[in-house]
Specification:
- By secondary structure, the protein is an alpha/beta fold.
- It has a single domain, classed as Alpha-Beta Barrel (TIM Barrel).
- The chain has 13 helices and twelve strands.
- Strands 3-6-7-8-9-10-11-12 form an eight-stranded parallel beta barrel, surrounded by six helices.
- A hairpin with a 7-residue loop joins β4 and β5.
- The protein is globular and about 50 Å long.
- The two termini are about 35 Å apart.
- GO terms for molecular function: oxidoreductase activity.
Length: about 350
Amino acid sequence: MKYAQLGNSGLLVSKLAFGAMTFGSGNVPSVYKVELDQAQKLVDRAIDAGINFFDTADGYADGQSEEMLGRLLKARRQETVIATKAGFRVGKGLVQAGLSRKHLFAACEASLTRLNTDYIDLYIVHKTDPFTPLQETLEALNDLVRQGKVRYIGYSNWPAWMAAQAVQLQRERGWATFINGQMYYSLIGRDIEHDSVPFMNNNGVGLTVWSPLAGGFLSGKYTRDNLKDPDNRLSGFDLLPHDKEWGFSVLDTVRDIAHSHNATPAQVSLAWLLAQSHVSSVLVGSSKIAQLEDNLKVAELKLTTEEVALLEQLTRPTPLYPNWFSAMMIDSVVAKALK
């Protein structure tokens, strides 16, 4: 297992993180489906493989994921890094959602109780909240750090402009600063490369990746014929928009590369992400030991420079304005002189 500093901090995390979203049961049985005994096996195997970074959220299976993860990591608490998230609705009350000071304080206390811990290593705001001033959210997060309930803070699913505004405010006020952005990123979902990745690189914010296999699409188990089968996860939980036919054409190349390495499409897809210098850690979620074992084998897979470049070219996102204009207008004389 390899490790990395998370952003501009001293927090060391494994390059593969274990995502516990599947722990528990609930109204999305294709997602929430791992009971305690199976969860124990998955967590033990992850730790044996060198994973020290575990991710959950208060909204996963109505808090069951946090409860189970806290119970399973209790004996290894000082050895592990626990990330949890807040922001999604957790009750019927009007104020039981969002990123207000009231809700973040209540959500943090509830997560501490469910995780059975005195502190949260990485506390992440799970989404944006258009109904709460940004300054209120950031001051509340800073207070949680100052109170010792949270060690580090991060954001998830925020646009780059908002994250940039937040970091500027944090620095101006001397508040705890975001060290992490947890974002969706995959071979067939590279939108964050337009603005989020450049912002993170320039501001010391580490990127952790959720859904690196695009909701399981890049695992290779789906075909054009079985995609809509009712037993498939994607038939009931197809959250990530992408052109499926284009995705299958990408998978054809991924399968060719996988065959040449005696690997699986999932391993190749994960290996491509790990080859990106801007990626700190990749979350892998598994409901079965066989799935986890398959994902762990990516540590042994080394794609060639040509293979990484081929996949990069095949899935490169179309440049957005003004990015393409800025690139086009770089002064060639100066650029040549500085080479």
